[in-house]
């Protein structure tokens, strides 16, 4: 089997500028990660941190700050409207149930509220003050404070789903870099570029106090970050690398720490205000804890007087630990104390999202997510034409795979041993096209023959034909097919037509498009050369709310809503997006899943739809991270808990394998992988097997075999190594035993001879004859014992093979029954893996070292002795 | 037997006059004892010697003692100061350290010794080892508590040295002790159950019980066990006396002591080895220093945080203070809690300003910081260094106030009680500087330390080879192998090597202006390692010579001083010589510099140092002589001492014969540079322990020691320190010398524990007595010899060949036989032809004998193992006759080299 191991894909990730957890009140387990180009990634924080979807930004957008809002209390106006307690309770309940709102702002002077389901801006307003550096929602979740380039704080009203400019504070003669609300919302604290921390009265809009930080050198200190803790303590982080804790009443620094070697860019605190994390240009995440301290003066008096007791206990901040998770500047840290798993997420210029548990910090090792979006792969492969299409921002890149001498080896051998093949034709960079779209691309796909490319931004899908001038593909012509989105592929009432998933059928007759509004449309593209397109079918399985069903009923198509019976929380519905899609090889079915976890399999040619039963229950609820049909058109569903379901569409039931083996049977190593499966590849040669891959492993699962022992060693390389070691050891033992028995025989012979000699030649021996004989006897006795054990073994026929097998079993390797879930971790930062032919796999990696080479230089740290 | 009576110091029953004692107090450690004590002490020894000696007792035992009195232990210098932090008195004017079973009291301002409190000596001859000292918290007196190996706690007045109180500890030995900060008579101690012998090192597995002791006024002791640990290395108590912490290797135990004896114990296992522990005086913080150089602040001293149940796994918030790159040896807090002091291998005292995180440094302290103590008035810091130094720094200026340095070679990093000179690391021996009479010996790696043994003061440290102090691996450090001075002190020659690969011979010239030695010539790889080094005494009209012997290349080289211009001096190799591919191991010049003696294997070769063409003579005592390790011309006499580890041969070069032989396990030999006097340190019995040693002072004329002293502390090296008044003209008569060998001279003995024991002539009254008995001194001394070793039956090989005292006639007969044996034993190719020897040999054999003497000779042979000392009673001629066949027989029985046998039988055939 041949593996195309590709490392030429040059996906350059954007640096992370902001990370915010959704408010704890909203029961919405997401964290928003804002990238520098404006893309916002939404990560699920339940269980493993899993990337779910990306909200595309404007082309060349900017993002400096993100904030969530989730209003739970009625405002004064609301109270006037809803005057009965019943109405008020209902309104409050409605508020609490609604989805949280996400705002972003950046240097392009626009504040945007995003639609989390449709992945488009909901509202956008001008900041009225130039670039926005910071933004904060007040604790009542009714106002946004925005700090801008021109030195004003502006307040935006966000009640009733609005985003309206409200008022402006006095001007400061420098940009406002950070802003925070006090817990009672009566004051606003800002940090600005003129080395000042200011306390503003939110009502009168004038400065209450100006607290100046010392300068280092001539440049004024930049207060990059300010937060307010629950007890009112103001914490500021500045360009000197210091973290200062301010007394809110006296407005003086209570404690100051030289936390970092360079600028402190971000601060965050847990909800109780007992732990503060800081990081910045020096990519060291530093933890501060509020701990009991003693009174110094008191204790001095105490030991002199010799009688008094230590009495007064004050609390003091202590630098309680630090850890370096990143190689470059850390721009954002977020701590969730409301989640049951208590995460710290951090990110910055090195583009990786790192997370770990907050409580054992700094002893916990972090998990790092790959720099590219691990799910909803940015790579698509034209299996017949051996082309690779990569999407980044608003550009598409196309490569042709290289060719190598064919090898006739089995896949397993290839995976385990690896053999470099002679490459006679290297990969070729065919095409780089920048699409004229308003937003970054949402999805892209290439047809198996490579002649069609479909790409979509938030506005709608586009289709391109690719023609190659000659066989060597030296010139490539790309033409947009103008009539492509056929008019009926979404109903007329649809506001956004952006496609989150698109896929060609294997025979290139159909293109399946999943839109942001939950429609799965099948478009006939057989007549693409003559620009003839027709929408064959529109499935509405993911549109399950009553209002949606009503709307759909008005349209002419076949609005089947099989998932209608599902009772879904309002939050889930409001933010529901189709996250993955798979088309079966025979072009019969399309399976789609959305972020609520529902999976619907629809017929491409017919109107039939099947709803896959819900995966997991309650606490163990899972959602699919990818979907794929295997060679026998069974739907393979890897989930967020690293489980693997197989659903037989024709039977409308999970397969026997899937029913028999629950999550508890999945091997531990596979189950505990930190990154979730991002895709499944199938080999036409091995119809019973699927290859599930994530960024760090490829695992071959044989669906005819049981999952194997729970504690098995899955990594084939590691297993081989262990096997070799054990076998070598047993062989050594065997040889040793052989040698010993041989020696034993010799010694016996010698002893009989030696006894004779002893009888005559006692004089030659130093020892007394008595002791000698006693010693000899003892020795002989000892040897005799050995004999019984060792000498008998060969005669008993000690089964060395069974010894090996037993030891292997102890080590987690079952030699008798073949292992399932065979894993290889040879490929790291794996972007994509799929089969382009029988026994021919394409593996696309993006090694971190290549990404790091594209990043700006990092903070230089002196090392001792280097 | 003899070794078991560990009568070390009290053997000298001297009562110094009060004035003398008062004079000595300021500068010397006086180890004198009261008369009453000594009577009881010396009695068992005398009883034993009587029992052993009874059949041949021919001298008055009282006279024996008089002989002993001629030499006595004058003082003990050097020694290990401390490897932990020192202890300040509660009024901060004094500091204490446990030095060699005594508490030395020093003044803080000038580090001068004020008082030496030798522990209780009623129990035995030696004071019990002091394990812990604690300053008396009671500020009304300047007291010090000691906890010693005899399970006792004692309270002493530091000013007068008076014992104030004594308590017997029921629980065992308190090895570490810390005062309870709240109660002046309570202590937290790590107790070891059974009292163990002093020399037994504390291993990591020793079990301890950390206990609270309360010593009441009425002498009763109340113990309160808190928790148990194995291998406790450190203990600290918080200011509120509620919290006690201890560490051992990777374990830290924190115990909360509540009222009514309730103890809650928390134990943690660390990933890094713990090396220091201290409580913050104010905040609930325990500072833990580890081997990685971090000082972790544990915010754990909080009952609410830890709970009332014993815990071990509770997470504790920790933050690190990390500057040290190597192990943090000590952490201390100033009382205000704002400053922390730490030190480690870097030799830098780090002062941490805890509030701001700023650090200040006192760098270049010279060696690893082992301990830091802060005086109670916060005015002084005392830094204990690994090179046996205590430095007192002023807290305000961080400037050096006073410094106290012991022998740097006595490495204080060794675990307490197990400190001993490292084997193979002490190679220079004790070298006495010819003009200043200071002792020169190995210092820290690559250094020589010049030390005044008499005033117990470090003089200077000479850096012979430089090296990187920190972070280096031990084997890469240079080592000074040898040092010698020319007889006028103008030149110093050193040999230093590094991991036995690099080797340098360096010649240093004394700069008269600065009185410092400056490197004049460096010779790289003079041999493959140098085994011995000697300067020629200056000869008029000849350039100064120096001889080195190679350890690996089997030759010796003569180096000559060349002078170009007025003051450009350098050394060049003048000649190289070898002898039969034997390895030279020792070298010596005669006093006038005209003869060079080099020991090749068991043979002593004599050379003309100017030519070195061929050996002028080869002296071989017997074929069995082991490879010689030392050679020395005795004073300005014609005697040459050659010794190996098992025997010492005294050659008379006038006769070319072995004058006498001492066959006993020798530890060290030294020769006085001018007076014909040598000192030998020997094991008391061939299979005795390394500490059962005795010192013999010998005259080259006789193997009977002038003085024999038991020295139960072991011997590493010996040296005579001439007093500055001794001049050549001051050469006393032989009788006077014999009576008082150490008049105006001191014998310095370095023990394995790094002590310098200084022996000198006894005080006047005894000396007079000794002089009056001078005539009988020889006879007495032989008895004294027997006294030490018991009857010769017990040690039959002790004296194999003995010559009588200064009766020349008899000696000459012995010489004759010795000459023969020399001829017989010498390698045949160096012998003159047999024809040339024949006449002489036959003359010797044809000595007239009478039937009478033959009869006695047979009886002598039957009683061969009788005491040799008795031979001088016999008639002279008898000895002469009997000694010859004995020699031949010895040869035969010892080994039978065929050719010797044939030669001898041939001779015998001829003579008969």
Automatic annotation (TrEMBL), chain A:
It comes from the Eukaryota. GO terms for cellular component: 90S preribosome; small-subunit processome; t-UTP complex. InterPro entries: Quinoprotein_ADH-like_sf (IPR011047), UTP4 (IPR046351), WD40/YVTN_repeat-like_dom_sf (IPR015943), WD40_rpt (IPR001680). WD repeats lie at residues 169-201. GO terms for molecular function: RNA binding. The keyword Coiled coil does not apply. GO terms for biological process: maturation of SSU-rRNA from tricistronic rRNA transcript (SSU-rRNA, 5.8S rRNA, LSU-rRNA). Residues 541-562, 733-759 are annotated as: Disordered. Residues 733-744 have a biased composition (Basic and acidic residues). Keywords: WD repeat. It holds the Pfam family WD40. This is U3 small nucleolar RNA-associated protein. It comes from Coemansia aciculifera.
UniProtKB/TrEMBL annotation, chain B:
GO terms for biological process: positive regulation of rRNA processing; positive regulation of transcription by RNA polymerase I; rRNA processing. Gene3D superfamilies: YVTN repeat-like/Quinoprotein amine dehydrogenase (2.130.10.10). One of its GO terms (cellular component) is small-subunit processome. Keywords: Nucleus, Repeat, Ribosome biogenesis, rRNA processing, Transcription, WD repeat. Residues 44-53 have a biased composition (Basic residues). Residues 1-60 are annotated as: Disordered. One of its GO terms (molecular function) is RNA binding. The keyword Transmembrane helix does not apply. Pfam families: Beta-prop_WDR75_1st (PF23869), Beta-prop_WDR75_2nd (PF23769). WD repeats lie at residues 321-362. It is found in: Nucleus, Nucleolus. Residues 430-709 form the WD repeat-containing protein 75 second beta-propeller domain. PANTHER family: WD REPEAT-CONTAINING PROTEIN 75. This is NET1-associated nuclear protein 1. It comes from Coemansia aciculifera. The gene is NAN1.
């Amino acid at each position: 089997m041949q593996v195309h191991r590709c490392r030429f894909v040059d996906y350059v990730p954007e640096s992370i500028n902001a990370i915010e957890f959704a408010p704890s009140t909203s029961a919405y387990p997401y964290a928003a990660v804002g990238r520098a180009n404006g893309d916002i990634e939404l990560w699920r924080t339940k269980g493993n941190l899993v990337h779910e979807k990306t909200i595309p930004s404007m082309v060349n957008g900017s993002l400096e700050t993100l904030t969530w809002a989730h209003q739970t209390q009625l405002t004064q106006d609301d109270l006037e409207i809803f005057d009965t307690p019943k109405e008020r309770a209902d309104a409050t309940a409605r508020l609490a149930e609604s989805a949280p709102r996400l705002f972003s702002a950046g240097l392009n002077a626009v504040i945007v509220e995003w639609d989390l389901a449709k992945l488009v801006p909901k509202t956008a307003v001008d900041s009225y003050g130039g670039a926005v550096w910071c933004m904060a929602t007040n604790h009542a979740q009714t106002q946004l404070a925005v700090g801008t380039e021109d030195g004003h704080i502006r307040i935006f009203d966000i009640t009733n789903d609005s985003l309206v400019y409200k008022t402006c504070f006095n001007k400061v003669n420098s940009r406002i870099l950070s802003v925070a609300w006090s817990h009672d919302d009566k004051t606003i604290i800002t940090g600005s570029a003129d080395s000042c921390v200011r306390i503003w009265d939110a009502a009168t809009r004038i400065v209450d106090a100006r607290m100046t930080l010392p300068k280092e050198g001539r440049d004024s200190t930049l207060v990059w970050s300010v937060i307010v803790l629950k007890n009112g303590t103001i914490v500021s982080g500045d360009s000197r690398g210091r973290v200062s804790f301010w007394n809110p009443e006296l407005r003086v620094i209570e404690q100051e720490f030289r936390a970092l070697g360079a600028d402190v860019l971000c601060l965050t605190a847990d909800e109780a205000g007992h732990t503060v994390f800081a990081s910045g240009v020096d990519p060291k995440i530093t933890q501060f804890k509020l701990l009991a301290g003693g009174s110094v003066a008191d204790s001095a008096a105490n030991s002199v007087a010799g009688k008094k007791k230590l009495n007064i206990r004050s609390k003091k901040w202590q630098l309680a630990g630090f850890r370096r998770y990143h190689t470059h500047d850390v721009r954002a840290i977020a701590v969730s104390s409301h989640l049951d798993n208590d995460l710290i997420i951090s990110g910055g210029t090195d583009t990786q999202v790192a997370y770990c548990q907050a409580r054992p910090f700094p002893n916990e090792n972090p998990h790092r997510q790959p720099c590219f979006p691990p799910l909803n792969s940015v790579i698509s492969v034209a299996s017949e034409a051996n082309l690779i299409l990569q999407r980044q921002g608003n550009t598409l890149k196309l490569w042709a795979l290289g060719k190598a001498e064919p090898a006739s080896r089995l896949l397993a051998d290839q995976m385990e041993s690896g053999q470099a093949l002679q490459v006679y034709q290297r990969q070729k960079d065919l095409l780089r096209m920048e699409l004229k779209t308003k937003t970054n691309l949402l999805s892209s796909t290439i047809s198996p023959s490579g002649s069609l490319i479909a790409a979509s931004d938030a506005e709608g899908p586009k289709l391109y034909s690719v023609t190659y001038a000659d066989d060597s593909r030296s010139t490539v012509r790309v033409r947009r097919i103008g009539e492509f989105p056929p008019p009926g592929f979404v109903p007329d009432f649809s506001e956004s037509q952006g496609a989150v998933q698109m896929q060609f059928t294997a025979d290139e007759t159909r293109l399946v498009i999943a839109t942001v509004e939950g429609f799965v449309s099948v478009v006939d593209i057989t007549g693409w050369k003559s620009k003839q397109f027709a929408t064959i079918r529109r499935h509405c399985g993911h549109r399950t709310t009553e209002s949606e069903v009503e709307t759909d009923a008005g349209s002419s198509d076949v609005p089947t809503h099989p998932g209608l019976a599902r009772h879904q929380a309002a939050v889930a519905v409001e933010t529901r997006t189709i996250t993955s899609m798979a088309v079966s090889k025979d072009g019969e079915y399309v399976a789609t899943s959305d972020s609520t976890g529902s999976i619907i399999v629809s017929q491409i040619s017919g109107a039939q739809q099947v709803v896959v039963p819900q995966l997991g229950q309650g606490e163990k609820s899972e959602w699919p991270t990818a979907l794929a049909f295997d060679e026998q058109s069974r739907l393979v569903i890897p989930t967020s808990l690293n489980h693997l379901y197989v659903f037989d569409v024709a039977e409308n039931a999970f397969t026997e394998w899937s029913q028999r083996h629950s999550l508890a049977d999945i091997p531990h190593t596979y189950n505990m992988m930190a990154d979730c499966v991002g895709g499944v590849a199938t080999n036409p040669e091995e119809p019973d097997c699927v290859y599930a891959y994530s960024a760090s492993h490829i695992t071959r699962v044989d669906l005819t075999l049981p999952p194997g022992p729970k504690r098995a060693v899955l990594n084939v390389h590691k297993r081989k190594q262990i096997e070799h070691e054990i076998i070598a050891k047993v062989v050594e033992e065997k040889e040793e035993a052989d040698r010993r028995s041989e020696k034993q025989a010799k010694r016996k012979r010698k002893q009989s001879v030696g006894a004779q000699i002893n009888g005559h030649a006692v004089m030659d021996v130093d020892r007394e004859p008595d002791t000698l004989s006693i010693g000899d006897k003892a020795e002989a006795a000892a040897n005799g014992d050995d004999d019984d054990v060792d000498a008998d073994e060969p005669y008993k026929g000690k089964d060395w093979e069974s010894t090996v097998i037993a030891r292997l079993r102890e080590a987690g390797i079952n030699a008798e029954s073949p292992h399932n879930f065979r894993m290889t971790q040879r490929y790291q930062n794996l972007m994509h893996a799929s089969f382009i032919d029988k026994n021919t796999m394409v593996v696309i990696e993006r090694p971190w070292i290549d990404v790091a080479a594209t990043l700006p230089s990092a903070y230089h740290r002196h090392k001792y002795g280097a | 037997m003899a070794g078991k009576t560990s009568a070390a110091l009290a053997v000298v029953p001297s009562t110094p006059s009060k004035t003398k004692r008062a004079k000595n107090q300021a500068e010397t450690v006086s180890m004198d004892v009261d008369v009453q004590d000594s009577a009881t002490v010396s009695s068992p020894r005398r009883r034993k010697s009587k029992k052993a000696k009874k059949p041949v007792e021919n001298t008055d035992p009282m006279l024996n003692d008089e002989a002993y009195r001629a030499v006595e232990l004058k003082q003990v210098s050097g020694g290990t100061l401390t490897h932990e932090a020192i202890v300040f008195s509660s009024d901060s004017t004094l500091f204490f350290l446990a030095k060699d079973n005594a508490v030395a009291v020093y003044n803080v301002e000038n580090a001068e010794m004020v008082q030496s409190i030798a522990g209780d000596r009623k129990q035995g001859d030696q004071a019990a080892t002091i394990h812990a000292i604690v300053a008396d918290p009671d500020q009304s007196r300047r007291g010090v508590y000691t906890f010693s190996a005899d399970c006792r706690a004692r309270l002493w007045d530091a000013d007068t040295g008076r014992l104030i109180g004594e308590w017997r500890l029921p629980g065992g030995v308190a090895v570490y002790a810390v005062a309870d900060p709240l109660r002046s008579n309570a202590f937290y101690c790590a107790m070891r159950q059974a009292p163990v012998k002093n020399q037994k090192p504390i291993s990591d597995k020793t079990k301890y019980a950390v206990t609270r002791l309360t010593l009441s006024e009425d002498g009763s002791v109340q113990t309160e066990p808190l928790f148990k640990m194995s291998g406790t290395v450190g203990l600290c108590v918080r200011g509120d006396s509620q919290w006690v912490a201890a560490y051992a290797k990777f374990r830290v135990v924190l115990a909360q002591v509540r009222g009514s004896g309730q103890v809650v114990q928390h134990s943690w296992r660390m990933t890094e080895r713990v090396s220091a522990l201290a409580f913050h005086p104010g905040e609930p913080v325990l500072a833990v220093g580890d081997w990685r150089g971090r000082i972790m602040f544990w915010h754990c001293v909080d009952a609410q945080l830890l709970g009332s149940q014993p815990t071990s796994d509770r997470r504790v918030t920790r933050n690190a203070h990390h500057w040290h790159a190597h192990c943090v040896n000590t952490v201390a807090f100033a009382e205000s809690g704002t400053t922390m002091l730490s030190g480690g291998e870097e030799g830098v005292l780090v002062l941490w300003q805890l509030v701001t995180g700023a650090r200040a440094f006192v760098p270049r302290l010279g060696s690893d910081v082992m301990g830091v103590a802060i005086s109670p008035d916060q005015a002084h810091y005392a830094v204990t260094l690994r090179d046996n130094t205590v430095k007192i720094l002023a807290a305000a200026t961080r400037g050096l106030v006073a410094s106290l340095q012991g022998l740097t070679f006595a490495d204080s990093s060794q675990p307490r009680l197990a400190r001993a000179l490292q084997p193979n690391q002490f190679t220079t021996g004790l070298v006495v500087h010819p003009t200043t009479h200071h002792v020169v010996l190995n210092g820290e790696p690559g250094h020589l330390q010049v030390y005044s043994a008499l005033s117990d003061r470090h003089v200077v440290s000479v850096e012979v080879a430089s090296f990187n102090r920190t972070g280096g691996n031990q084997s890469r450090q240079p080592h000074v192998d040898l040092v010698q001075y020319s007889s006028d002190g103008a030149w110093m020659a050193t040999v230093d090597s590094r991991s036995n690969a690099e080797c340098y011979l360096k010649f240093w010239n004394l700069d008269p202006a600065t009185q410092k030695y400056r490197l004049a010539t460096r010779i790289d790889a003079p041999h493959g390692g140098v085994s011995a080094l000697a300067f020629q005494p200056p000869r008029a009209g000849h350039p100064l010579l120096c001889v080195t012997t190679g350890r690996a290349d089997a030759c010796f080289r003569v180096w000559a001083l060349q002078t170009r211009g007025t003051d450009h001096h350098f050394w060049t190799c003048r000649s190289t010589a070898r002898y039969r591919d034997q390895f030279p191991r020792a070298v010596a010049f005669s006093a006038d510099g005209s003869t060079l003696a080099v020991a090749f294997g068991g043979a002593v070769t004599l050379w003309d140092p100017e030519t070195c063409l061929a050996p002028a003579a080869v002296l071989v005592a017997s074929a069995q002589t082991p490879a010689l390790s030392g050679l020395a011309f005795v004073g300005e006499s014609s005697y040459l001492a050659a010794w190996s580890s098992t025997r010492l041969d005294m050659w008379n070069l006038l006769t070319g014969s072995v004058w006498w032989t001492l066959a006993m396990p020798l530890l060290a030999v030294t020769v006085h540079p001018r007076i014909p006097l040598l000192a030998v340190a020997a094991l008391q019995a061939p299979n005795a322990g390394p500490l059962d040693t005795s010192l013999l002072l010998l005259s080259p004329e006789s193997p009977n020691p002038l003085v024999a002293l038991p020295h139960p502390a072991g011997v590493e090296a010996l040296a005579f320190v001439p007093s500055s008044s001794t001049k050549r003209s001051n050469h006393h008569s032989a009788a006077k010398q014999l009576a008082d060998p150490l008049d105006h001279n001191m014998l310095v003995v370095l023990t394995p524990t790094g002590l310098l024991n200084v022996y000198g002539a006894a005080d006047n009254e005894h000396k007079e007595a000794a002089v009056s008995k001078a005539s009988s001194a020889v006879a007495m001394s032989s008895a004294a010899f027997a006294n030490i070793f018991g009857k010769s039956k017990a040690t039959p090989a002790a004296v194999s060949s003995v010559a009588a005292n200064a009766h020349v006639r008899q000696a000459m007969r012995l010489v004759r036989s010795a000459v023969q044996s020399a001829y017989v034993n010498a390698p045949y190719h160096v012998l003159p032809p047999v024809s040339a020897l024949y006449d002489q040999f036959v003359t010797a054999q044809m000595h007239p004998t009478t039937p009478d003497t033959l009869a006695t000779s047979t009886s002598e042979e039957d009683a061969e193992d009788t005491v040799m000392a008795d031979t001088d009673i016999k008639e002279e001629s008898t000895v002469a006759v009997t000694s010859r066949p004995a020699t031949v027989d010895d040869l035969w029985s010892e080994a039978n080299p065929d050719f010797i046998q044939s030669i001898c039988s041939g001779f015998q055939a001829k003579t008969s």
